[in-house]
Amino acid sequence: MDIVYTIWLRSVKRYIRSKSRLIGSLGMPLFLFLVLGFGLNSVVVMPGMEQGYIGFIMPGIISMSVLFTSVFAGIQIIWDKQFGFLKETLVAPVSRFEIMLGQTVGGATTAVIQGLIILVLSLFMGLEISNIPGFIVAIIFMTLIGLAFTAFGIAIASRMEDMHGFQLIMNFVIFPIFGLSGALFPIDSLPEWVKSLTLLDPLTYGVEGIRYGLLGTSQIDPAVSFGVLSGFTVLMVVVGSYLFRKISI
Q1: Are 182 and 64 spatial neighbours (Cβ–Cβ below 8 Å)?
Q2: Domain spans of the chain?
Q3: Which residues are CB-neighbours of 96 under 8 A, at least 6 positions away?
Q4: pLDDT 10s digits, 175-223
């Protein structure tokens, strides 16, 4: 398992050293929080939400940050492929599953760090979390989102040769995933046909799990959210490892 740790450490170090990436990735979440949260907090009434609309969307914005960071961790596969690092790694006497697992855990770690940064900033802006155990629950759901969508990004990147093509496909896929997740609106308020699509979206269960952890409220049973998201995570790791084993260099 040394190769898993080595690749994980490499991913984390690259993230920490890239100050522009770290700061730049905070832009969209903070923009949504400030514009939608403060802008609509006095307009949108959220029954049963003591912290109003700004409290409702914060778990969704945290989920968005984790989602985007984890999915685009897959671009590292294409980068390594183009610069020869992946070839050197693949010819080493280690399994491709371990290499893929290291990439997945590394991408998930950076995604969770990104989510925690947004969470800490939101605390300074007035968000109140329910309790410490709830904070741990939120981290667990962030981790599952990070693992699932990093593996998803690696699966797509394993079949791609061009970084621009990967970015276009990911943008085409992840915006609907985020938009249908109930991050910015209550699921129960949606038309039935849209609600059905929302319940097919795996991110929905991550958003509701984080919302339950931080605010103590959720529109989906937390046990159901955990079960569905865990199953999706396992599925993505299996699919990602299969496609990564088929990668050509």
Answers
A1: no
A2: 2-245
A3: 90, 241, 244, 245, 247
A4: 899 989 988 888 887 888 888 999 999 999 999 999 999 988 888 999 9
